[in-house]
Amino acid sequence: MSGSSGRGRSSGSQDVAEIRTRIPQRQNNILEQAKRLKGRSKSEIITIALEEFIRSGKLKFI
């Protein structure tokens, strides 16, 4: 039993390491997006955001 819990811990620590490496990349993406949107109107930003959501598959029309 102790062996199985040990495996669980090691995979968990790998997940943590993976998340730590992803966070800075995510912040850079957000900064890049903010620079692209600077100077645009609210309606333009909303339209771009909706297009991104639809393209990524996170938002689907029924």
Layout of strands and helices, then pairs:
Layout: H1 2-37, H2 42-56
What attributes does this structure have?
62 residues, single chain, mainly alpha, 2 helices, flat, 82% helix, disordered N terminus
Structure description:
The chain has 62 residues and is mainly α. The chain has one domain. Helices cover 82% and strands 0% of the residues. The protein has two helices and no strands. The longest helix has 36 residues, at 2-37.
Q: In brief, what are we looking at here?
A:
By secondary structure, this protein is mainly α. It contains two helices and no strands.
Main sheet summary: none
Low-confidence parts, pLDDT < 50 over ≥5 residues? 2-9
List how many beta strands DSSP finds: 0
- Look at the helices and sheets and give the structural class: mainly alpha
Radius of gyration: 19 Å
Helix content: over 70%
Q: What is the multimeric organization of the chains shown?
A: single chain
